[in-house]
Structure prediction request, 53 residues.
Amino acid sequence: MACSKAPPVCSSAGGGKKPEIDEEQVKELHAKIGELALANSFLERKLKTWGGK
Prediction:
């Protein structure tokens, strides 16, 4: 099976090293999540006026 030859994605062989966190990237991603949530909310309301769910 092909999956048995694949390298492990998550393993404890990483030596317990925590990933570095880029605070600027976290802020950008939070902003993008907020934008997408706002767009989803807007579109959901607009679809309801057109007879959507």
The first helix runs from residue 23 to 49. The chain has a mean pLDDT of 82. The chain has one helix and no strands. The two ends are 43 Å apart (CA to CA).
